[in-house]
């Protein structure tokens, strides 16, 4: 099976108000009120998946929402690049528990 290398990148997006039925919140770390999107791209920058959620969720929580999508690909992953917010023991433990 070919090797698949994924890059995880997160970005916060501020909106004045959420649309009907959309969850919004406050990200105290970035002082953003609105929504946040977690983006999964490959090493060429091609979009693999994106999830939008309330800004009060942590980057780690946003990635767990994507986790169900890339679970079938886990067997062929060699590396996931993330920023420092994913370097915590909680994230590492979640990866090990979820994907073995």
Automatic annotation (TrEMBL):
- Give the transmembrane ranges: none
Q: In its UniProt entry, what is this protein called?
A: Transposase
| Annotated Transposase IS4-like domain residues | 13-96
The organism's place on the tree of life at top rank: Bacteria
One function term, GO molecular function aspect: DNA binding
Native organism is Synechocystis sp. (strain ATCC 27184 / PCC 6803 / Kazusa)
> Which PANTHER family does the record cross-reference, listed alphabetically?
PHP DOMAIN PROTEIN, TRANSPOSASE
Q: What is the lineage of its organism?
A: Bacteria, Bacillati, Cyanobacteriota, Cyanophyceae, Synechococcales
Q: Write one Pfam family the protein is assigned to.
A: DDE_Tnp_1
One GO biological process this protein is involved in is:
DNA transposition
